[in-house]
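Reviewers of the previous submission asked for a worked example of the structure-prediction workflow described in the proposal, so we include one complete record here. The input consisted solely of the amino acid sequence. No template or homolog information was supplied to the procedure at any stage.
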Amino acid sequence: MRNPCWRKDTTNMRLVRAMTILLVGCLPLCAFAQSAREDWQTLRTEHFRVHYTPAFEPWARQVASKLESIRTVVDSEVGYLPPYVTDVIVADPVAQANGSAWPFLGAPRMVLWASPPPPASALGHQSDWGELLAIHEWVHVAHLTRPSRRPLARLQWALSPIALGPISTAPRWISEGYATVLEGKLTGQGRPYSDYRAAILRTWAQAGRLPTYEQLDSDASSWMGMSMAYLAGSAYLEWLVEREGDASLRNLWARMTARQSRSFDEAFEGVYGDSPKKLYRRFTAELTHRAMLVEGAAAASQRPGDLWMDLSWTTAEPDISSDGKQLVTIVRGRNKPARLAVFSTEPDSNAETERSQRIEKMLARDREDVAPVRRKPLERKPKAELVLRPGEVVGGARWIGGTGDVLFTLFAPDADGFLHPDIFRWSPGAPAAARLTAGADLRDVRPSSDGSFALAIRNRFGLSEIVHVNLATGDCRTLAGPALDGQFAEPALHPDATRFAMIRRRAGRWELVVRGIASDATEAAITFEGIVAQPAWSGDGRTLFATVARDGFIEISRFDYDPTAGTLRERGHVTRGAGASFAPAVSDDALWFLALDPDGLDLRRMPLTSTEEALPTPEIPAGTQPVVRRAFEGIPAPLARKDLADSSPYGFGRQELSPLFGGGYSPSGSAFEGGARLGDILGRLETLALISAGSNGAVNGGSLSARTRAFPVDLAARVFTYEESPSEQEDGTLSTSPDLDRVGIEAWLSHDRRWRGGALRSRAALYGSDVEIVGRDGFTQLGFAMGARLAHAPMLPNGTLVPLTLDVSAQAGDTDEESWTRARGALTIAIVAGGKGATLLLEAGTAGNDTPEFEHFEIGGVRGSLLPDAATANRVSVPAFPTGVLRGRRYDAARLDLRAGGGLPTLFVQRVKADVSAGDDELSLAGLEWSLDVESVPIARIPALELRLGTARVLDDGLLEDETSFWVTMRWKP
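From that input alone, the workflow returned the following structure tokens.
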């Protein structure tokens, strides 16, 4: 649930910030939708257009029916109603709970992902996922589209390619914190009224680890750091309102949009009397005081268990083997890929001995030295591990009875690149896992002891169901659902394999349920006010443990189950630590669970006998919210449903016009490019009209292109007319390229296919043009081109990727009544880890012996937005050189890039060589370059774009000897 358009700034640089934010900060989220090739439909209300594919219709209709009511109740809080119709895209591209808001002035839009959150999560405290999500995202739209009352600012945004209101420039914690506050105030649920937020704030405060004001906006270096804008940001806003009243936030928004230009800090101080940074320090001091009061009140009822493994970052729920000797879990580290790890549960005597020997040697060398204090267990080394691909999302790992194998879920891409959780099986020690299902959308998998079947949850198209999976065939049979208004989660098979426990959301509340696999006739259920999650059985099947949120604490509760009578009874919390306890797993003699810590989730162990007696509820002092759960004392906003008309085909969608600007500077000239994009928010049809005004040899002319993604293959065409004069370049005397005028047309089709770790893009094109070369007669150019780009990234055992890319293309044609053929290829080999690494590019090309000189390879220059790709496939772009500095029937090139990561420029060395008829045939250079290459982002009205900024120095004597060049280019790609 993100607003992708945020940053700190004053009004002077809003346009630059907006472009940077959209192009860099939010593309991974915004680019996702379902495939544009599907049969999209549209539902219309007075103020919304809701777009979805047919499978999502029930969920989309349910959300759409409440949007007008949500608009009204949010207005009562925000105090502003955008006068625009908002486009809403319903999708599920990565099978996870999320959404985004795009608060463009004049054309706002929202993206709603239909997969619900699991109960044991920050978003688990909700009764209707679609409703909570729509409220949060609509708050962003209503809040951030409030326009400035300053006439000059209104004019500035009216002429800008991307129009955002002045509140969009406020810190991220303001927009996310405010939307989080209202998600809670309007529903009585969400994060503000969850035990989850309370546990996070309390744990961080007690450890002295609350984020600083600078970290509040975003802190990717700390675990949960990026979530603090929601959690601590919303609590800070609540604290400010308690000090200054409900009207204070509206006053802040009024000052930020006033005729007088103000920074966020200036607007804030005028409402709250001091800077946001100083008041945040006071807030954290009070929060810490309240957290320490709670710690003291709960001290007498502590039962934290023993720290068994000190971990950092995120660890998945553990599972114990049937013999109790092994534990499997999924461990994730910062900037490290996830891995399945198997640990022995036996004491590590070798590690203890080695530590003792090290201390003895240390003290023997220096008798006055002091042995280190030990408060944590020694680091445990896994017996076996399977490192997954960086960025891959995986679900919990579970032992398959006594087989010694492990089942887990992995979110793998389909042919369009959208993720689906599927079941994989791994034998510890094996280098890879076997895939058991494909595109089945299965999670929370719990296998039977004999490995013949498993129970799993299927969340698909906004519907939730629990299924029986035949692990031999992958066939699925529904046991309950599919439910639109409810949700199923986390089935746990009973040891007798005839029944199971599960988590169910029904009538807006979470339940712990035990029922039979064959029938639910003997169902037993307990309903909770808060969250219940992650059930786990004891070996005898008479005790059930689960995560339960109650009274401001998230801990493990114990339940007694009578298999004969089919009754279920809760004893109460049996754990209580400094933070929270999650994800129980049971062996014959111990309860294992995860414990909350500011550095991540630690693994703890408690003797099973210690769980016999439930802990008393501590007496918590009054007024300690929000470090304990805040009680909702209001009335949830009434959200009436509106009757909807039938949907209509989306077709090519509503075509939106937006300006485009590009061009740049390089040794091959300077150019300004301007034009417009006309297209829909799904990218089913996109038209680009561009003109270029160049000097010093750059292109002058125009082009018109159109592309549709509505069919199994993408179809596109472009008409173009331009002139370029290489002789007018700064080093024009060195150019072998003629001055020319060209007019023509090209049409192409392309298709992309993706898989886990790889992708294939294939393309074919036809083109024709008339060429007038200055000082020579004109001629006609006709041609055909086809090519493919294969990318795959093998992974080394330590998780380092070795991306490989192979580009091959072939062209044939007739130029000035001479037939010719040409081919070129490039191989890229990289070693990448954590955004750092090295890349080697090798490329070469050759043309047939009868190929006319005009079709020989041409080295140097930049590729502007107007140049036709197929008709100029002989161009070898090197921005540091003038156009045509080398020309030959054959060429080869090599480039080595060294990447430091963190957005820093790339250090490179490059060599190019061509078989010229006379003179120098080789050039080498070294330099720095920063580049960004992104695909089309239709929802943001941005076509495919290439940005390059660099400097280089020629290393050779002779041609361009010791010359230093600079370039900055911005190219739009149809």
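The radius of gyration is 31 Å. We consider this example representative of the routine output the project will generate in years two and three.
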